[in-house]
Amino acid sequence: MQIVFATARPPRSVRSYYKQLKLQTPQINYNGALIWDEAHRQILRHTPLNQAVARKVIKFARRQYKDLLVSVEILDKWYTDHYSDMPEYATETSKHFTPDFIGPLEAFLRVPVTKLMLLGQPVWIEQLEKLLPKEFGAAITHTRSDPHLLQIMAPGIDKGRALAEVATLLKVPAAAVMAIGDAPNDLDMLRWAGWPVAVANAWPGVKTAVRHVTASNDEDGVALAIEKFVLPPHRLR
Question: 186 and 141, same structural domain?
Fold first, then answer.
């Protein structure tokens, strides 16, 4: 059995889990914008968003909602022009790490962006999720994993394509892959995998897209799915 992390988070945010599990496999970060060799701290593939496009997205979004928070990840570093204690807008990464740089957007939007994050009231994010595709079309990819967070990446980025790439590296066919997810940013990965599974606390649209719903993440749902479908004598079939 080979375990691969496929996450919206940066490498630093899942490093402790990687070490605890003693993994050696590549990992998928930023929804597939980065395929990372954590064992050797090397980039296997990085597909960033053009910085000029990122600037236009931010300008457009803040024209709609001037108090929108903006965070930028460039490889494994976090940049923002505003940082304060607002737990209602926190990401999982921001609960454990502080920004590497706080300052004007112009100071760091000079190089391509691994992932752009727009944070704010859920109603703002829901509206921006409708407006941005109309304004930018195929120039961006967007997805959500939290009601208060919209994630923007380069065109064509999704976990499904990244997982297919990693599976090819590991010489594992799609039919032999079990993918487990809970949010809309997992849907492409779940559609690609031969055995898609959702945890019980997944978004409703995710649970309708899988073959099996396991227990919630707080009830060891991932472990239960592995025991049921992967470990002998229950290998995927």
Answer: no
Q: Which neighbouring-strand residues pair with 183?
A: none
Percent of the chain with pLDDT over 70: 93
Assessment of whether the complete model's pTM goes beyond 0.85: yes
Rounded Cα distance, 132 and 219, in Å? 36
Helices (H), the chain: 11-20, 51-64, 105-108, 122-136, 159-170, 187-192, 204-207, 221-229
Question: How far is it, in rounded angstroms, from Cα 40 to Cα 156?
Answer: 26
Does residue 34 belong to any structural domain of this protein?
A: yes
CA distance 138 to 119: 22
What SS3 class is residue 157? coil
Final residue of a structural domain among 153, 173, 201: 153
Asked if residues 26 and 50 have their Cβ atoms less than 8 Å apart, the reply is no
CA distance 197 to 27: 19
In contact, 237 and 216? CB cutoff 8 Å: no
Cβ–Cβ contacts within 10 Å for residue 192, how many?
19
Q: Give the strands of the sheet with 42-46, arranged side by side.
A: 27-29, 34-37, 42-46
Average pLDDT, the chain: 91
Indicate if 148 and 199 belong to the same structural domain. no
The residue among 90, 114, 112 whose CA lies nearest residue 32 is 114
